[in-house]
Write the structure tokens for this entry.
Amino acid sequence: MGTGEKAAAAPCGSSSAGFEAWKQDFAGEARAKGVGASAVAALMQTSYASATIAADRSQRSFSLSLDQFLAKRGASTIVARGRSLKQSQGALFASIEQRYGVPPGPLIAIWGMETGFGSQRGNQNMLSSIATLAYDCRRPEFFTEQLYAALKLIDQGALSAATRGSMHGEVGQTQFMPKNILAYGSGNLDVAANALNSTANFLRAHGWRAGAGYQPGEANFAAIQAWNAAPVYQKAIALLGRQIDGEAGSAAR
């Protein structure tokens, strides 16, 4: 929000007990900030997302070693499918690289890691997930900003009360959070071309330079770090991207 005021009048909570009262207070604050009636109505329809809270408490895969993480995520399959997509969608990736300076490899790696190339986009109610996390005491400030962004997107008609996403409210082929949709998104992110262009736009906005390397220690790795905070995830994107782009062989480290 950037204004420094308290995120919501109601206290955070660690169970569903206070969620309905919190929604009422948050809705009042949202109206005062200019959030429209349709978005406020969508907020009031949300339910406490117990599955989201369970997932948020147990993100164990990010503590694995790189090799364990790659095995769990099916890295060899991502590389094989990614190389095929790089060929079959060559015109799309060429246009993205010309526009944003981002080569196919890291984009395809992100696409494969995030949703298995669109096959696993999540089936949680996006707004319920984000509202629950904004209410939860673990990271309320971060998710309050995401919730306001989601409400704005609903007001704009870009998302709806029925939008489905992953456990933390990520949506689309490459799993954008609402604030990033507002800042970098273009079109319906369930459409691969839109999601890939938007992902490249995000990377360029975070310092990606055309032609520079993107392995750890190279100029563009910081943009990958901005995409996901988990070091093992960042290294996986760099490694798989390099393999998909065909540099240094399939077993490169």
Q: What stands out?
A: Confidence is low (pLDDT under 50) at residues 1-8, 248-253. The beta strands are 124-125, 164-165.
